[in-house]
Amino acid sequence: MLLYFMLFYCLAICQGLQQRPLVIGHRGSAYLPELTLATQSMAHAFGADFIEIDVNLSKDNQLIVIHDLYLDGVTNVAEIHPGRNRSNGLNYVIDFTLDEIRQLTVRERVRPLNGTQIYPLRFPSRSVVPFRLSTLNETIELLLGLNRATGRQRQLLIEIKKPEYHTENNRSISRVVLGTLRAYNLTRPTDPVVIQTFHIEELMNIRRNLGSELRLFALMTLNRVGESSSDYDFYRSREGIANLSQTVQALAPDHLLVVDYDSNGTIVGMSNLTKWAHEYNLQVYPYTFRKDLFPGSSFENLVDYFWHTVQVDGFITDHPDYVLQLLENDITKNGSKNLASHLFLSILTFVFITICL
């Protein structure tokens, strides 16, 4: 009987050694234009646990998978629909119907007013490959279809963009999102869908007034960024995190809120955010880890610090394949050493118990 107990104990240790933080493919992956069905498929194939997307409403109330409120950063809207821009020179998603948006092609992200590619070494922004914007329905169909075809169960992390902006335009984007998910019977906390937004009060509305049981993540940034009217200084305090724990299951903060950097980008310490979140049973998934844009001199050391020192629960990253590789290499490198140590202690315990008996 004792031998069986020891074997069970060793197996439990082996399983524990294989755990790693979750990896969330930010806008899919960095290798194809963001948020297209192609790059979402790539993130799924890479093994990302979640695929993160953003949704905005079109003029005819369709949920478009796009990061910005406007179309100019990632499409050729100015060429296809000239003269439709607002006074600031930008063409907003909410001013175009789905049919009009279907006419656009998607490119790698550029600065809207001068066309300079943001990440120069990524997919060429001048490529003639005809990528397209998709709807939330199409993204859900893609996820469920790939899950079924591959037998690998990935999840979808949906960011509702600027709920306050949509309210100002007489739209309840959260209601439309939840209605779309209900059509696919995606309503339970065990379903492969999570909702997040920067407007934390909207998360409370989704839970309390709209009655959703889906998992919710609270996105956080610095107040000065002006992402929403939410007071992030409060919500990342111990009191604020305790408040949030009544509504959400995780925090998704800017990594600048999780650790402290000096002027050279070297980590000099960490905040209490992760510790307090864990005290209230909230997980922490900081953003955005990019191997072509990161603080400090070593992306590998950055990931290692967030995993082993800060002990985050996952990474929101443009490079899910590379972060997965780093995590798995770490497990391979340290797993044998840790397993040997645990097994040695187990044998000592077994011998001690045997002698005592």
UniProtKB/TrEMBL annotation:
<dbReference type="Pfam" id="PF03009">
    <property type="entry name" value="GDPD"/>
</dbReference>
<comment type="similarity">
    <text>Belongs to the glycerophosphoryl diester phosphodiesterase family.</text>
</comment>
<protein>
    <recommendedName>
        <fullName>glycerophosphodiester phosphodiesterase</fullName>
        <ecNumber>3.1.4.46</ecNumber>
    </recommendedName>
</protein>
<dbReference type="GO" id="GO:0006629">
    <property type="term" value="P:lipid metabolic process"/>
</dbReference>
<feature type="domain" description="GP-PDE">
    <location>
        <begin position="21"/>
        <end position="327"/>
    </location>
</feature>
<dbReference type="InterPro" id="IPR030395">
    <property type="entry name" value="GP_PDE_dom"/>
</dbReference>
<dbReference type="InterPro" id="IPR017946">
    <property type="entry name" value="PLC-like_Pdiesterase_TIM-brl"/>
</dbReference>
<dbReference type="GO" id="GO:0008889">
    <property type="term" value="F:glycerophosphodiester phosphodiesterase activity"/>
</dbReference>
<keyword id="KW-0378">Hydrolase</keyword>
<keyword id="KW-0319">Glycerol metabolism</keyword>
<feature type="signal peptide">
    <location>
        <begin position="1"/>
        <end position="16"/>
    </location>
</feature>
<keyword id="KW-0732">Signal</keyword>
<dbReference type="GO" id="GO:0006071">
    <property type="term" value="P:glycerol metabolic process"/>
</dbReference>
